[in-house]
């Protein structure tokens, strides 16, 4: 599952705090030359979607659980 990236891929790793629930997580986004496009990833705690430039769907690792004391899921507004 956690296989190392291929040699021609570059991995960018950054940390993000969820603006909805306060969880902190690490995002691993792989890049290939000229292959990046908008990819979505979701907060592992509430499911709120974020977007970044990457070649594949980014992987997310939870660093700190949500801080708002709730258990609800973020509701994407589709309207
Ligand atoms: Zn969240």
Give an overview of the whole structure.
This protein has a domain at 10-64. Helix content is 0%, strand content 43%. The protein has strands at 10-17, 24-31, 37-42, 49-54, 59-64. It has a three-stranded antiparallel beta sheet, with no helix packed on it. Strands 3-4 form a two-stranded antiparallel ribbon. A hairpin with a 6-residue loop joins strand 1 (10-17) and strand 2 (24-31). It is elongated. The N and C termini lie far apart (36 Å). Bound molecules: zinc ion. Zinc ion is lined by residues 18, 20-21, 23, 43, 45-46, 48, 66.
Strand order across the largest sheet:
1-2-5
* Helix count from the secondary structure assignment: 0
* Secondary-structure element string: EEEEE
The largest pleated sheet is described as: 3 strands, antiparallel
| Uncertain runs | none
Summarize the structure.
0% of the residues lie in helices and 43% in strands. With 79 residues, the chain is mainly β.
Layout of helices and strands:
Elements: E1 10-17, E2 24-31, E3 37-42, E4 49-54, E5 59-64
Zinc ion is lined by residues 18, 20-21, 23, 43, 45-46, 48, 66.
Keyword list:
79 residues, three-stranded antiparallel β-sheet, two-stranded antiparallel sheet, 43% strand
């Amino acid at each position: 599952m956690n296989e190392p990236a291929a040699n021609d891929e570059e991995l960018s790793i950054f940390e993000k705090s969820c603006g909805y629930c306060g969880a902190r997580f690490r995002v691993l986004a792989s890049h290939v030359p000229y292959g990046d496009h908008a990819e979505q990833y979701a907060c592992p705690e509430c499911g709120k979607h974020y977007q970044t430039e990457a070649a594949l769907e980014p992987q997310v690792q939870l660093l700190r659980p949500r801080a708002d004391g709730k258990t609800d899921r973020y509701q994407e507004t589709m309207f």
